[in-house]
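Possible regression after last week's pipeline update?

I re-ran a chain I had predicted before the update to compare outputs. Posting the input and the new output here so someone can diff against the archived version. Not blocking, just want to make sure nothing changed silently.
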Amino acid sequence: MPVQFIGAIGTSGGSESRAPHGPVVDKVYLGAIARAHELAGFDRVLIGYFSSAPDGFQIAAYAAQQTERLQFLLAHRPGFVAPTLAARQLATLDQFIDGRLAVHIITGGSDAEQQRDGDFLGKAERYARTDDYLDVVKRTWTATEAFDHDGPFYQVRQSFAAVKPVQQPHLPVYFGGSSDEAIAVAGKHADVLALWGETLEQTAQTIARVRAAAARHGRSDQIGFSLSLRPVLARTEDEAWARADRILAAAKAQRAKAQGAYPVQLFRNDDGTVPNVGSQRLLDAAAGGRVRDKRLWTEIAALTGGSGNSTALVGTAEQVAESLLDYYDLGIDTFLIRGFDPLEDAIEYGRDLLPLVRAAVAERDMARVAAE
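New output (post-update):
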């Protein structure tokens, strides 16, 4: 089973430990980080979604013009445009960038974040809407003649899109979420379920839940799994942990000084509660200790309230590769990795980490074939 690597790009270079600088939309930086990921050997890069961030469609279009082979994973929140329009927008972009697009469906785990864009539905309703939304989007991509749709949230009459994705039958659909509602929708629709960086035990539990949900739709063998982590590398293990300590100190200082320069506040509701199951699971992992399993570092997750992709693997490239392979053996076939120094770390990962993991996976696959 081949392994894929996804990075992350944006229009500025901030992180939890590094204050953003320069304009909000820095075309030079965006082009540089996109090209760095391509040269580093990443398969794809994520373009995230926040209510305060620049538009991801425009970012993807610009970054695609700066690269030749790099593929893109565009985060998209259902409910803010009609599904027929979203399907045409995504298909059109896929045509312009020669079939290099996938979509990452983010239903939205934080009420406060959703409300900033005018969405006041509750969580259960949002996931029900996402299910209906994806029914329409996929049908728009694949329909060969006009169709009607009567769902709980969307109704269309004689809808048809002349533009179809380059990729057939449709764009790859990634899906985020760990709640029961999310797992149910993922089991029906997702090509890839994206998890945050949980412990090995938590990860195995989630994979089992998703496969069971997918089995109810006859597709338990049709869904892949992505895990998001923040590798912290150095020449020795001691140096790597010293680097992690510096990152933590910088993150604490930045939070104290800026009080939200980086959007970690999006992962708390206005009343301070943790908004989603994924964040709760990261905080559960952090409650078990600073380091879980061999080298899963949880302190940034604890500091930020379980914000998204906030757990890390700390060690030498060889040690981190070993830990990634432990997840691979559970069924993770994609790793979304990004650094606390986004541009520099992408280059380092391509030089030191990706080749090790790919070589080890190839050896595993060859041994598996030989044993069959």
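Follow-up from reviewer: compared with the archived run. The first strand starts at residue 4 and ends at 9. Marking as no regression found.
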